[in-house]
């Protein structure tokens, strides 16, 4: 900008100076003055000629010519115009032209007329002189003004030039400063680049990984020390060589070349910038080895370059292979061990069942007290051993995923009751009560009741084992998750010894017992919780514990479950649809009286002949004595249980080849190995329905487990309907009568002993009634008996009194309801 | 015929020889003297002077150019003798040339300025003799149009008209 201004100014100035140089301004000035002089001289010559007649006129003529020349020059030229005086001098010009023409005629004429005209010439020239004088002064004034203006213009121009120059100088100084700064920056940058370059070189040089830089032509550009070590080439040897012949095994070269070519032509990359890959490379000596590498690409001024970071992983590979081999070996050993244990357990169980059966048979004979003691010892030991073996087999079964998960409809309160009730006597032995608290309402659910039961049973068994005083509480709660889904939470809380924080996770591991000596004293393998955890995770649920040593523990199970769909309310199929089976001889082995009566009624109703046995021992005895077509075997019985009884029956006697069906409430027997070993042919789920029983008898196959009954508050009407169908009214009445006698006897005993009798007596008394009430469908009564029983078990007198208080009223209501049912119509 | 021819040749030779001798002497002017050269000169034809009439001027190398001037309108072709040639013809030795006009206007200039493309002692304008009333009889004029460096105040001042005397000084 300043530079342009300066250029413009200089050009202007030059023009001005040139004009100054060329323009003859003062020449006018000079000529006008000279013209005045010429006029004066001419006038003088004229006066002289006038004064001296006869004098020479040559000088006069020359003076005139000189004036004439001057006047013509001044008038003719453009000088006046340049000064802007053209108009001002027009009168003078006219006057002079007239004078000059007139006088020239006289001068050029004869002497006589010249002399005669002289006076007039003198007069005219005098006047002319005055005018010229005025003009001359005017010219000088104008000229001076012009000069001033010109000087001012020149000075202004010079001033502007000076300002522009100073500006330019400042600008240049600024630019200089900028250049200096830029130069410094460039220097810094250069040093930085130098530093980075050397750092990079050091980084590449000292890298533990091989670094190879190659160009687009596939030739090596750089080769670091680690690469030298890995491949065996010196850097100088490698640089400039094609990669393919240098480090790529011959069999891979074609693929490498093809890849490079593809990348060059299409730009598609498979390897470059693809992260870590593993390939085979080749050393100088031809040895091939695995490398892990990643290749990055970069645009450099010399074109695309590729930077490969390589790591010799032959050792890592070898180590990995060794590890894999070690792992496989270990796994194989583990499998062998597991399979050995499984086989051993399996092999042990058959003879063990034999031992137990033999001991039972032995026990039925007459024995001396000493022999009796040893026999009890042998029996208990054998049972414990069997339990251990079963646990181990259970674990291997669950681990092998051999048992699928059921998706059956079940009724949670009923499930909990059937599981907890059989454990009450065991708890009562230690003076413990089991309290069941069903929190909230429980819709029918879909799930695997057997597994849930197994877990709950394990929790409760543990609680009994590890609690010496206080109580055990079983809580169940169903939390809605979505319209279809719920989360079931079962909690078993005890007031036992508790578990230290550090052991809380461990106890769910296999064979872990916090205190092995204690574990031995209470009996157990330490597998119960491990099995529970496996079962829970098989059902997508989880188990856990919260515990405070010395305060007690709370084991919980959480399961996601589906709600069962609304029950099919269509009337049950009539009797006519029931499968018809030829009359059979049936042995019912069942310790619970009510259950026995129900089963007997059902079977009789179906046209079979029924023999009853009250426990395993009696069952075995009867089975040996007579051949039965079918034996229905309750599994959990005191003294000899169903498993053992079945095993012993198979060992010999009249019924050794009879069909034996297990009857069970909480364990799915066919999920257990011992099921087959015990010689059972099938199983039936409690509570039994006539239909399921009839079908089982007809098909000789596993019927579907009986569905849990729907219930109202007071009575389980479906169950009662079922009972009425199988008992033909008369039988039903007899059953109810038996029940009435039992209840009234119990109520009397309760009333007499509720305030004074020992808790265990009360508990046993009430326990029997709980089962009986459940069988006949006296729902509320059953619940109240259970509550009372729980209070007795818990040794809680006030609770017991409270629970027993409502019993007579509930019984009255129940009996009234039964009466309504039995009324005709 | 041959005699005449020989005489002519002889006359020519004599004339050539006379030309060479002209460096020192020139014939006296026969017509009206137009220009008088005096001072440090070697060629004289009068009392200490070289007096030139029209015929003598015409005998010197003639030169002409066309130019405009600041005193005239339009251009004109001026003819006459280059100052240089006149100085050479007069055998001038001095370094300074002083020129004076009829009205006694005088200028002084270095003799070295009298160059081939320099000042002309013009006495013809467009082929017409220049009268005393129109810058005559002799006007020292420069080729203003051809040579820009002459368009200066000094050169304008040196363009002396009605020139009639030249004096060479050291």
From TrEMBL, chain B:
Residues 1-23 form the signal peptide. Residues 71-143 form the Oxidoreductase molybdopterin-binding domain. It holds the Pfam family Oxidored_molyb. The keyword Signal applies. It comes from the Bacteria. The keyword Membrane does not apply. Keywords: Signal. This is Molybdopterin-dependent oxidoreductase.
């Amino acid at each position: 900008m300043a530079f342009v201004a300066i250029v413009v100014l200089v050009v202007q100035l030059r023009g001005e100076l040139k004009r100054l140089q060329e323009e003859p301004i003062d020449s006018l000035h000079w000529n006008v003055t000279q013209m005045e002089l010429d006029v004066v001289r001419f006038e003088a010559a004229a006066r002289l000629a006038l004064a001296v007649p006869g004098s020479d006129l040559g000088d006069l003529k020359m003076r005139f010519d000189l004036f004439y020349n001057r006047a013509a020059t001044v008038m003719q030229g453009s000088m006046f115009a340049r000064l802007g005086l053209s108009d001002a001098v027009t009168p003078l010009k006219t006057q002079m032209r007239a004078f000059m023409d007139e006088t020239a005629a006289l001068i050029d004429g004869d002497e006589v007329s010249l002399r005669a005209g002289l006076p007039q010439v003198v007069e005219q020239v005098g006047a002319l002189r005055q005018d010229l004088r005025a003009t001359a002064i005017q010219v000088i004034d104008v000229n001076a003004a012009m000069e001033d203006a010109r000087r001012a213009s020149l000075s202004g121009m010079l001033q502007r030039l000076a300002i522009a120059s100073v500006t330019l100088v400042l600008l240049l100084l600024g630019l200089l400063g900028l250049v200096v700064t830029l130069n410094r920056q460039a220097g810094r940058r250069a040093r930085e680049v130098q530093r980075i370059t050397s750092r990079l070189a050091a980084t590449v040089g000292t890298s533990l990984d091989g670094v190879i830089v190659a160009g687009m032509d596939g030739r090596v550009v750089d080769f670091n020390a680690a690469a030298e070590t890995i491949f065996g080439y010196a850097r100088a040897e490698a640089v400039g060589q094609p990669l393919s012949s240098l480090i790529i095994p011959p069999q891979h070269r074609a693929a490498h070349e093809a890849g490079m070519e593809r990348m060059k032509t299409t730009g598609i990359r498979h390897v470059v910038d693809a992260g870590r890959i593993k390939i085979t490379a080749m050393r100088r000596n031809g040895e091939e080895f695995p490398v892990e590498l990643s290749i990055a690409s970069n645009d450099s001024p010399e074109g695309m370059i590729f930077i490969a970071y390589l790591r010799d992983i032959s050792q890592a590979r070898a180590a990995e292979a060794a590890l894999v081999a070690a792992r496989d070996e270990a796994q194989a050993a583990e499998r062998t061990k597991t399979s050995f244990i499984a086989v051993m357990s399996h092999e042990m169980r058959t003879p063990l069942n034999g031992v137990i059966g033999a001991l039972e048979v032995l026990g039925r004979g007459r024995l001396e007290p000493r022999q009796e003691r040893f026999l009890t010892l042998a029996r208990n030991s054998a049972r414990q051993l069997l339990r251990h073996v079963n646990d181990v087999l259970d674990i291997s079964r669950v681990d092998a995923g051999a048992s699928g998960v059921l998706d059956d409809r079940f009724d949670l309160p009923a499930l909990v009751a059937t599981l907890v009730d059989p454990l009450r006597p065991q708890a009562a032995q230690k003076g413990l009560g089991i309290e069941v608290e069903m929190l909230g309402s429980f819709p029918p659910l879909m799930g695997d009741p057997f597994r849930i039961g197994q877990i709950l049973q394990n929790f409760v068994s543990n609680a009994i084992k590890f609690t010496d005083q206080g109580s055990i509480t079983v809580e169940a709660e169903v939390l809605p998750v979505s319209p279809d889904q719920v989360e079931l939470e079962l909690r078993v809380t005890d007031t036992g010894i508790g578990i230290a924080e550090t052991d809380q996770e461990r106890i769910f591991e296999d064979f872990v017992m916090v205190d092995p000596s204690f574990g031995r004293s209470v009996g157990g393998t330490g597998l119960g919780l491990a099995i529970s955890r496996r079962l829970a995770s098989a059902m997508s649920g989880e188990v856990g514990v919260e515990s405070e040593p010395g305060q007690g523990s709370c084991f919980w199970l959480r399961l996601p479950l589906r709600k069962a769909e609304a029950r099919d309310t269509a009337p049950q199929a009539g009797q006519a649809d029931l499968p018809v089976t030829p009359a059979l001889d049936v042995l019912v082995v069942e310790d619970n009286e009510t259950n026995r009566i129900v089963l007997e009624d059902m079977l009789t109703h179906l046209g079979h002949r029924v023999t009853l046995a009250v426990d395993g021992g009696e069952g075995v005895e009867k089975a040996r004595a007579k051949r039965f077509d079918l034996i229905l075997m309750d599994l959990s019985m005191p003294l000899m249980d169903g498993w053992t009884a079945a095993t012993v029956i198979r060992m010999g006697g009249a019924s050794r080849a009879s069909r034996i069906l297990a009857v069970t409430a909480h364990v799915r027997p066919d999920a257990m190995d011992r099921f087959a070993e015990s010689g059972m042919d099938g199983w039936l789920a409690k509570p039994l329905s006539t239909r399921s029983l009839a079908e089982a008898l007809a098909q000789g196959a596993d019927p579907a487990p009986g569905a849990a009954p729907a219930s109202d508050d007071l009575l389980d009407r479906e169950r009662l309907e079922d009972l009425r169908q199988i008992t033909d009214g008369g039988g039903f009445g007899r059953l109810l009568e038996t029940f009435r006698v039992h209840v009234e006897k119990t109520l009397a005993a309760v009333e007499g002993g509720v305030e004074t009798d020992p808790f265990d007596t009360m508990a046993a008394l009430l326990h029997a009634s709980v089962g009986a009430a459940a069988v006949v469908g006296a729902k509320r009564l059953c619940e109240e008996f259970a509550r009372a029983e729980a209070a007795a078990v818990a040794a809680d007198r006030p609770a017991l009194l409270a629970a027993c208080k409502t019993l007579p009223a509930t019984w009255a209501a129940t009996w009234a309801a039964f009466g309504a049912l039995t009324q005709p119509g | 015929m041959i005699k005449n021819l020989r005489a002519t040749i002889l006359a020519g030779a004599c004339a050539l020889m006379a030309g060479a001798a002209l460096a020192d002497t020139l014939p006296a002017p026969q017509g009206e003297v137009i220009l008088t050269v005096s001072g440090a000169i070697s060629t004289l034809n009068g009392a200490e002077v070289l007096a030139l009439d029209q015929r003598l001027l015409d005998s010197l190398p003639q030169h002409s150019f066309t130019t405009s001037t600041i005193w005239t309108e339009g251009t004109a072709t001026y003819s006459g003798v280059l100052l240089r040639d006149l100085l050479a013809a007069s055998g001038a030795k001095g370094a300074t040339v002083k020129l004076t006009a009829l009205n006694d206007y005088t200028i002084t200039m270095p003799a070295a300025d009298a160059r081939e493309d320099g000042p002309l002692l013009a006495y013809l304008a467009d082929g017409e003799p220049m009268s005393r009333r129109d810058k005559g009889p002799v006007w020292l004029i420069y080729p203003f149009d051809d040579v820009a460096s002459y368009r200066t105040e000094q050169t304008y001042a040196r363009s002396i008209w009605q020139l009639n005397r030249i004096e060479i000084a050291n």
